[in-house]
Amino acid sequence: MATAQYEAASASPGVSEIDGLSWMKIRDSSGVPLAGYQFSTNHGGPLNAGATILWAILGLEFIGYMAIVTTAIWVIGFALSFRWLNMFGSALHGVADALTGQIATPLMLVTAATVGAFFVAWFIVRGNPAKATMQVVTMIGVAIIGPVFLADPLGDVLSSDGLLAQGRDVGISVAAGLNGDNHPNPTHLVTTMQGDLADNFARRPLQVWNFGHVVDERPSCRSAWSAGVISGDDERIKNGMKACGDSAAYAKADNPTMGQVGTGLMLLVCAGILLIFAVYLSIKVVKAALDALYHGFMSIFGFAAGGFVYGPTQTFLVRNIVDSFVAAARMTAFTVFLGVYVLFLGNLFRQAQGQVMAVIVIAGVAEIVAISQLKRLSRSLDGGNEWIANRFALAIQNGQTRSGGGSGGSGGTALGMGSSSGRAKGGTVAGLSALNTINSSPITAWLAGGVAGPLNPLARGRKAVDRTSINVAPKRQESHTWNQLARDNWKSIVAGSTKSGGIKNELAVAKALKSLEDAKISGSQVPAALLSAGASHSMVTNAMRASSTQKSSMSQNPYGFAPLQKAVAAARAVQNHVGDEAHMSFAAQALVSADSFARHANEPAPGAVIDTKFVRTVEQHWDSDKALRAAITPDEWNKVGRDTRWAIGHKVATLHQEAAQQYYAQPSDLNRARLMASVRRVSNLDHLEPHGGLDPWDP
Fold it and tell me: What pTM was computed for the model?
């Protein structure tokens, strides 16, 4: 009745509708077309400019909202109705028949069968009769099924009772059963789904937006609103609310507010999410159907020739057949998914009891989740399709029987399946790896205008810096000048370390090496600097050995005194390299480290008060670690003054320096023993842990 009223009213010139949406013919459950919906409000006038502005803003939001919602609902219905498939079904039939006539010729059949028979003979010669038998059975099956299929290649896909239509009908029937319909009609049920979506996403939200609540809850107001929309007169809609007794709805419509503008923005966002869901679902449905058509075309090659030849060509035929059947399963799964989704939304709106806006927001979240779930469902169907095709292909290729060999399809990948036999595809990490590969490719850099790694942060700024560096790069003569300046700098450092500017012994080399390291000269340039200053190759090599040994054997205790740790490590290296050809270089390294230790050991200020009794106690026991710790506790170290501790530390460092000087001047066993005794003394006074108390070198 509502449809007839609208058609009669629309014939009159006064009816207003959205022309861009009227051709979709989307109606709500009351039969009112969505293209005829109107937002009834006060239009204002010259004396009410604020209402006029609000009316204009609300009108723009309303048109956008209705366009998005109506399009989304139409896309869902159009995709599931398969009307789009009828548009090019006859053309596809003609193309398939022409292709069959060109390929399925007796000559092609004989050639393919001959090649297939060769594989049978090959398997028999190789002693694999099971595979030969399976190949014969496969060829016979292709020869029997092929003529039936080639007589109407796309009949099983495009016919009214084909795989796609059956999958759609089964899915709709299941969805109808979930909605309580025990005798579903697939054609009518698509319209019913569209009506439910129109009620939930267009009719009720519009009423809440326009009047502040759902006016359909009163039967009289429901009829008044439908009649007003059908008439195309927004004043009649407002007056109908007043006539049915809903004065609140009339007042809301006659006094637009900025709150309605905000509500419209919220509805636009939710409508956009609905459209994304509808488009994504329709793409999945259409893609499944077009995949079935594609594999139907490819099956022509398989049944005409490829199915007779062992290996990838038979696998290709199996994949095409399996995918055609899985397309029906896709239709079923997608349609059931939509039915459950529409059922969920319908129940959600019914349970809300008029609280439409809250449900709209919840529905938007549900649609986002539904998109991810639909993506996961599609991925599972893809994996299942590949797995089924791989199992069939393995069974054909391996041909295991109780008396034959082969793997029996227990695992692996069939010939022609590639690496996609039911395995999950790469996820986010694989995608990021591919993106990184593309980003680092020189081809990408050339395409991006010479920007290396164009996706990296500040990539274009780095390009500008690199260009500047290239443009101001020194010429060969300038480079030579810089190198000469570097050598002069090295020589000045070496001259300052040796006082005389010459390097004639191991001690001079050790001092020069330390000076270069203190000046942060690169390690790869140190040997060149020493050689350019006049040191011999052997002395440089030995000095580098001594320095490396000291660094590797030095204590890593973070609480230790670094100059002390270097001095101890260098002195112990002397003991471990007696008789070595580089022994004097190790002795020189020990002396240089001892000099640094004495230089960095703090000396008490002149006139400082020193606890001489404490100093004597330390000197009496410092040659024995056990005796020293028994005589002086950590608390006593903490309580004694800083100057007293520094006096002890400076004296020990000076004595160690003298021992190192004596040994380097005369490397006898006696002097070496004195040096080692000094090392033990220094180690005894070094507190390796914080709870041992302040040591003589702490500030």
Answer: 0.52
